[in-house]
Amino acid sequence: MIHIDILTVVPQLLTSPFSASIMQRAQDKGHVKICLHNIRDYSTEKHKNVDDYQYGGGAGMVMSIEPIAACIAKLKAQRNYDDIIYLAPDGKLLDQKICNSLSLARNLIILCGHYKGIDERVREHFITKEISIGSYVLSGGELAAAVLVDTIVRLIPGVLNDESSALSDSFQDNLLSPPVYTRPLEFNGWKVPEILLSGNTKAIEKWREEKALERTKERRPDLLHE
Predict the structure, then answer these.
(1) Three-class SS state of 167
(2) Interatomic CA distance for residues 130 and 135, integer angstroms
(3) pLDDT tens, position by position, 119-168
(4) How many helices (H) and strands (E) does the chain have?
(5) Three-state SS for 63?
(6) How far apart are CA 42 and CA 67, in angstroms?
(7) H-type helices in 29-113, by residue range?
(8) Handedness of CA 154, 157, 161, 162 (dihedral sign)
(9) Least enclosed by CB within 10 Å: which of 10, 108, 186, 208?
(10) Could you tell me the pTM of the whole model?
(11) Are residues 56 and 80 in the same domain?
């Protein structure tokens, strides 16, 4: 089982993504435990503020180091963590290799940024891995955390009904997935490729490999050079 602690100032944003479908079943089966921690609970301010003005001036508030440090210290006193991850636009771009690696971890902390960002000292002294889910900016790290957790949990053995399904996903071999079809056999004159009806497993696999390569060359040629 993997234990994931998520630090956030708006935990309600993460309630829904983890309470349905695969994520809920993974928790019910004991494959993952996801715990949400409200950073405000660790604030010593009267009104539970967790941000302050920037030194040097500038627009936007910055998340303070004290409540974040207090929360991390409490969690680290309970277990050893493989990584403490900060979700940031300037982090390393998330890819399947990172997901595969993190799925082997036992304990993870994920810190969701908010406002203008977090005090740089948090990044310097607590964070072990910084991840971005794309070259754009969100209002906070919560949605990115939901994406990251989903990519990790679905790779844990036993989470998906067919464990081989994750192994054939796009990006696993630096290739996009080939086209897939289901019933009906024909719709509006559009037919399923005959090869998929042949029952020839070897030929079907060869067709899928060729289609995966063809699609990757067309849509994501950059993957072939990694």
Answers:
(1) helix
(2) 14
(3) 999 999 999 999 999 999 999 999 999 999 999 999 999 999 765 566 55
(4) 8, 9
(5) strand
(6) 5
(7) 65-76, 96-102
(8) positive
(9) 186
(10) 0.89
(11) yes
